[in-house]
């Protein structure tokens, strides 16, 4: 079904004027729906990638629980502009959270948050602090979500032990014959496999608690206002139980890189220590009171962990013939994996300094 026809299925105000592709996500397909009336809201329409998110009903329920909990807390605090401080899901005409069309596409809608900026790359330390604060505030807001645990939408999403096991099988199988040219990169990753099982092991031994975490903390999943102050975090598909270092770790992996996530010029890629500090400062200022000592000691490691894991995930998808991530060329996943490897090397070199910075804020 076309996006135009789909909008009729949702309970929206106003007349649809235009529908245009929107954003740079690698998983879902997103459109901005503009309405003609000045007093009617605009909307964000998405096709949820159900090859990746296999249980869209449970995913939708997670998002409904999380957004209504956050909304309730903001109302309690008498916060202003609440529709810009939390995502607002829009129901279908028959009161459901998504519409499944005859081609098996799962469509959903949110209110469009106006005058909000989401950046693929950071331009300042202020933005880094805002990024850290956004995910720290999110952590605080969801830390007392009542009821049963959230549904694990992608089981083992950041379970590095499981990812390494699957990666080793992929390397052995070499399904599309791409291994030969990348053996050196694969060896680099496999040499480090034991080191990066640490967080999962600590969790298993009860040294760190499971919390509700966002788990996809790219900077373009934060919305900022015109002054670069935090509005809210979006892209809540992967919100589920996990460890706190995943969120600040992935935010730094994505946001504190001097290059792009898919930078073909590896000379551009490395950790920017000022941005690293900004993220940590913002995150710790918001969460200091709720994290345990052991958790705080995992945060700098989290940046390396998530970079390592992302390198494994991109390389795994390259070896598998690009089935998971959207790609623009045959080499795209390889370029991404190599950029993550370069970023990891840079973090390994500066790790003592990263730990020293964290210790200043805890
Ligand atoms: P993906 O899972 O593909 O990354 P997102 O949910 O992050 O999809 O949406 C893609 C982009 O659309 C975001 O990076 C952001 O720029 C924009 N966006 C998402 N939700 C909203 C919203 N409710 N209001 C305004 N912009 C949004
Ligand atoms: C995907 O959906 P998006 O583009 O925000 C991915 C993340 C990766 C990221 C890498 C569900 O995020 O885990 O870190 O790409 N999301 C999923 O750019 O796999
Ligand atoms: Mg996103």
Please give the radius of gyration in angstroms: 20 Å
Highest-level CATH class of the largest domain: Alpha Beta
Q: Give the strand tally.
A: 10
Please count the helical segments: 12
Mean pLDDT: 97
Distance between the termini: 52 Å
What ligands are attached or bound here?
Answer: adenosine-5'-diphosphate, 2-acetamido-2-deoxy-1-O-phosphono-alpha-D-glucopyranose, magnesium ion
Task: Tell me the strand percentage band.
Answer: 5-15%
What CATH architecture of the largest domain do you see?
Alpha-Beta Complex
Low-confidence stretches: none
Largest sheet: 6 strands, antiparallel
* CATH homology-level superfamily of the largest domain: Aminoglycoside phosphotransferase (APH), C-terminal lobe
Structural class: alpha+beta
Categorize the overall geometry: globular
Number of domains: 2
What name does the CATH topology of the largest domain carry? Aminoglycoside 3'-phosphotransferase, Chain: A, domain 2
Oligomer: single chain
Portion of residues within helices: 40-55%
Q: Name the helix and strand elements from N-terminus to C-terminus, one letter apiece.
A: HEEEHEEEHHHHEEEEHHHHHH
């Amino acid at each position: 079904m076309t996006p135009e026809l789909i909008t009729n299925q949702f309970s929206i105000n106003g007349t649809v004027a235009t529908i245009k592709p929107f954003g740079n996500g690698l998983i879902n397909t997103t459109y901005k729906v503009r309405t003609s009336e000045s007093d009617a809201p605009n909307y964000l329409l998405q096709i949820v990638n159900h090859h990746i998110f296999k249980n869209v009903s449970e995913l939708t329920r997670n998002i409904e629980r999380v957004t209504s909990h956050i909304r309730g807390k903001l109302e309690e605090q008498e916060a202003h502009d609440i529709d810009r401080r939390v995502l607002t899901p829009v129901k279908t005409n028959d009161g459901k959270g998504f519409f499944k069309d005859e081609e098996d596409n799962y469509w959903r809608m949110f209110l469009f948050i106006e005058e909000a900026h989401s950046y693929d790359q950071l331009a300042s330390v202020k933005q880094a602090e805002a990024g850290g604060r956004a995910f720290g505030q999110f952590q605080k807001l969801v830390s007392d979500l009542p009821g049963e645990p959230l549904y694990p939408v992608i089981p083992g999403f950041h379970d590095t032990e499981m990812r390494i096991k699957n990666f080793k099988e992929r390397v052995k199988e070499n399904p599309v014959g791409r291994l030969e040219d990348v053996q050196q990169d694969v060896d680099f990753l496999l040499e480090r496999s034991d080191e990066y099982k640490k967080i999962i092991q600590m969790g298993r031994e009860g040294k760190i608690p499971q919390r509700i975490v966002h788990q996809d903390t790219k900077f373009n999943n934060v919305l900022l206002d015109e002054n670069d102050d935090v509005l809210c975090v979006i892209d809540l598909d992967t919100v589920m139980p996990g460890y706190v270092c995943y969120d600040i770790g992935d935010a730094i992996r994505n946001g504190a890189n001097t290059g792009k996530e898919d930078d073909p010029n590896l000379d551009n890629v490395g950790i920017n220590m000022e941005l690293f500090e900004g993220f940590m400062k913002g995150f710790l200022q918001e969460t200091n009171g709720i994290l345990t000592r052991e958790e705080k000691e995992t945060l700098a490691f989290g940046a390396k962990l998530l970079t390592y894991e992302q390198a494994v995930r991109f390389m795994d998808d390259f070896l598998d013939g690009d089935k998971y991530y959207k790609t623009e060329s045959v080499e795209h996943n390889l370029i991404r994996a190599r950029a993550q490897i370069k970023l990891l090397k840079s973090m390994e070199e500066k790790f003592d300094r990263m730990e020293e910075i964290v210790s200043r804020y805890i």
